[in-house]
Design a protein that fits this description.
Chain lengths: 394, 258
Amino acid sequence: MSYFVDEKGYFGKFGGAYIPEMLHANVEELRNNYLKIMDSEQFRNDYQYLMKHYVGRPSPLYPALRLSELYKTRIFLKREDLNHTGSHKINNTIGQILIAKALGKNRIIAETGAGQHGVATATVCALMNLKCIVYMGETDVERQYPNVMRMKMLGAEVVPVKSGNKTLKDATNEAIRDWINNPLDTHYIIGSVVGPHPYPDMVSKFQSIISEEIKWQLKEHTGRELPDYAIACVGGGSNAIGTFYHFLDHPEVKLVAVEAAGMGVETHETAATIARGKLGIIHGSKTLLMQSPDGQITEPYSISAGLDYPGIGPVHAHLHDTGRAMILNATDEEALDAAFELTQIEGIIPALESSHALAALKKLKFGKDEVVVVTISGRGDKDMDTYIRRMEGS
Amino acid sequence: MNRINQLFANNSKNILSIYFTAGHPELNTTVELIQTLEKSGVQMIEIGMPFSDPLADGPVIQQSAQKALANGMNLKELFQQLKDIRKTVQIPLLLMGYLNPVMFYGMENFCRDCQQAGIDGVILPDLPMEEFEAEYKTMFEKYDMKFIFLISPQTSDERLRKIDNLSNGFIYMVSSSATTGAKGSITTTQTDYFKRVNALNLKNPLVVGFGISNKETFNEVCKYANGAIIGSAFVRMLDAAKDWRKETEEFVRGIIGK
């Protein structure tokens, strides 16, 4: 059983490149070149240099002693929240901006929901002196004002998207339309392991640095490279595949992906795509997605703006389909509880997305000598409004 | 013989094809709009199947799809509306839309229901050539349903030949690197691309679409193709029309009238 992409761009029966002919040449150019570029000495040197000196990698693997005591096991936190710009998103945007430069592109487009990927893209565009246009649903522009201002300060143009429901899915549509209209000079930096092949594979490879580091860091801490559990939240699924990547072929490592259940996985207000979605096509990829009985894509809901994507990366659909990954979900309430728990016993304020991964600790039974790695994908600064409302009891 | 093949059998020129979104302007205008278009002199019609996320469409067609969905249009309803269409309409009819709702309906169910309604061809821009060939080609042949491929200025000659080989109806020549919608006049970059495609002497007729909005652009692109498709400009007219039946006739006369 392979958990990696095949030569046609599929993970099992999921993936592919379901794109209009107008995008074929763009995607083909990327497909023909991404592995070659990533393999070049120049790319590897530049990527490693920036990861170390600009992003601040390796990110710590922190032995969370008090959390371990509470759950009577050995818990390690992979601290992606400590990266430059505050989340794992920068691992991907650094990689893709180097690809864009190698392909001679001078105009960068991106979609963003909560703004984390938009900020990470605007950041690398400032660094590389490339024009940056970020598509963001009009509703999100209003909800995520500080991130909009960060992007603008970084020199990006933020385009409010008025089509559809005016959120992440529509921002992604608009970015794809931009790419159709600007096929020659533009590179589209997708923020997750979604979209047409080769994006899911390419973004997985950039995020795989997370599990690459976990292996040697865990060896330093415990004398062994492999944890018993690797746990991450999943929206599109980029921090999750980064956390799983180097453990995929080690069946003894239990992989746990935690979806956002919103108000509950049985309600309409949910973003638990694997639990509730059906096979279809979204943004160029064949995967599971939330849709109406007529095959119209529906709007998901989660308290966390980074997890409310109606699709799921095709690799995760495959990991679910093959039983390789265990798919759990956490409600808004469970995630909020987990955020406050971590903050109060370890002094780390996690992002709401990452709090869903932490909420899984209550749902699993661990042995006291088992080793559990949880990825903290981002920091909670951006979610302070939500946390403040919780503290004020409203 | 399939009506599309019949239409192009004599190397016909200046074929006017019109696109509209089913269920727009109103849920039940679909059949009467088709009849009005045929009476006005339109020779082929693309009936849009509305989708929540139309990636290749500009704002005008996006909004028509949203309205159609809000009006309650879906595939089941559309086939219900079209069940007697062949009692009154002779020209080729195609369904155009996106893959997801069709997949959800089931491709074989879809092809069968198309055949029963008397649909002649299908355009699904996000179903790529490779996937069509591997998964669905035999099914389309079984129901005598023409699958129409799009080509764009970025499509290589080699790929054009492959598409030509797989096609048996016409080739939909997207006029520029763009989503649907009016762009003004036709540029030399566009005519150079039309000439490049013409020079390949493909076996299938060519029909130009995207960015064709009036008599002038229609006549210009017809120099390099067998016909052209007008979508957004027509849908925009429907949006603003006080009496869409009368204004549809006027619109068509404005394109092909003497």
